[in-house]
Structure formats: C-alpha cells, structure tokens
Design goal:
Elements: H1 5-16, E1 21-25, H2 33-42, E2 47-51, H3 57-64, E3 71-75, H4 80-89, E4 93-95, H5 101-109, E5 114-115, E6 117-118, H6 121-129, E7 134-137, H7 145-153, E8 160-163, H8 172-176, E9 184-186, H9 192-197, H10 200-211
Parallel strand pairs: 1-2, 1-9, 2-3, 3-4, 4-5, 6-7, 7-8
Helix pairs in contact: 2-3, 2-10, 4-5
Family: Belongs to the KHG/KDPG aldolase family.
Enzyme class: lyase
EC number: 4.1.2.14
Length: 215
C-alpha cells in the first residue's frame, strides 16, 4: 500500500525533529559527497537535503546515503520524474518549493515522505486538507520571515513548519523559537568555499554551532 499523507507527515516530523537545522546542499562534485555528509553528521546535523540543482545531485545522494547516521533527502523536487529518480538514488525523504497534485501523487506512490512548500495560509490549508501537517515555509524571508510564519501559525496551530530561504545564523533562532517550527533549512553550514577547499573540520564546526541553536 502507498504511504498515506498522515504517514508521510509523521515521518517528515520525525526527520525534522532530528536537529534544529537541515543543511540545504548544492553539491557540484560527487567526490565531496561522502566527506561532506560525514562532517555534517559528526557535527550533529544528520538530516541532509541535497538539492537537485546540479548534474551531480543524484550521484551525491547515492554517496551520502551510504554514510552511517545520515538521513538523506532530495530537495527541489518539481516533477514526478524527480521523485522517481531521487528514490532510486537512495533519498529517504523529499523537499519541494511548492506542491502540485502530480508531485504529491508521485511521492505517495513511491513511499517518499514529502516536505511540501507553502508560503501562504491558503497553500498551507490546501495541504492540510490533503492530510499534510508538516510543511516547508518557502521562501521564508521573502514571504515575511518569522512574523509571517507566526501569524500563519495562530489560526493553523496543527501545522508544523521548516522555514527555508534566507535563514541564516543571525535569524535562525528567531524562527526556531516559534511554536509551529520544528527545524529550519539553511545552506550556511556548508559554504561553497569550505567545500571546495575540503575543509571538513571547518564544516563540522559550523554544524556543531548550528546543532546548538535550539535547546
């Protein structure tokens, strides 16, 4: 039987509860995949979102999925083909900037828990109507930031969010203090210059700092 929306949301909540920050990763070189994942997991950030924005992304997911302790998902899912390819590569959850009927159906058919994106109350309500109560708030800062997400949460307290898009060390704690936020997605824990330099110790240190953000 395909995964139900309720089962998918339960699993998404479990993943989002692993750490306060989910690294949003744009990885161009497959050789960086394993040591990058190892550094982030060692730093206390086990849930990893590999965005499908580079030709290497699916290979990166394959490599990272072999790292002990890591929970690897595919970000920027837009089409059913993205979903199928991500699942074959080893992704255990999916993240999308929004949500379409076709994308949701593909994730349910593939038993891939989906963190679907919503930026407004209406979008969140439509997903809740379908049974999804763990969502991505995107683009977070451009959509009004923590004040907007707090306002959405007042009439919709049953929905939890992972804000992503413009989240930084300077504002992450503000999001994490909201009662409807389980975690936040951020790219600062794996900056391109440190990845290119192979500074895995530096990335592990950034991960440790991020892992301390929420008590």
């Amino acid at each position: 039987m395909p995964m139900t929306p309720q089962e998918a949301s339960t699993r998404a909540r479990e993943i989002c509860s692993l750490a306060p920050i989910v690294p949003v990763l744009v990885v161009k070189n497959t050789a960086h995949a394993r040591p990058l994942a190892e550094a982030l997991v060692a730093g206390g950030l086990p849930a990893l979102e590999v965005t499908l924005r580079t030709p290497a992304a699916l290979d990166v997911i394959r490599e990272m999925s072999q790292v002990p302790g890591g929970v690897v998902g595919a970000g920027t899912l837009v089409t059913p083909e993205d979903v199928r390819n991500a699942k074959v590569a080893g992704a255990t959850f999916g993240v999308s900037p929004g949500a379409t009927d076709a994308l949701i159906a593909a994730c349910e058919a593939e038993d891939l828990p989906l963190l679907a994106g919503a930026a407004t109350a209406s979008e969140a309500m439509r997903l809740l109507e379908r049974g999804y109560d763990m969502l991505k708030f995107f683009p977070a800062e451009a959509s009004g930031g923590a004040p907007a997400l707090k306002a959405i949460g007042a009439p919709l307290p049953q929905i939890a969010f992972c804000p992503t898009g413009g989240v930084s060390p300077q504002n992450a704690q503000t999001y994490l203090e909201l009662p409807n936020v389980l975690c936040a997605g951020g790219s600062w824990v794996a900056p391109a210059d440190l990845v290119e330099a192979g500074d895995w110790a530096g990335i592990e240190a950034l991960a440790r700092d991020a892992a301390r953000l929420k008590a």
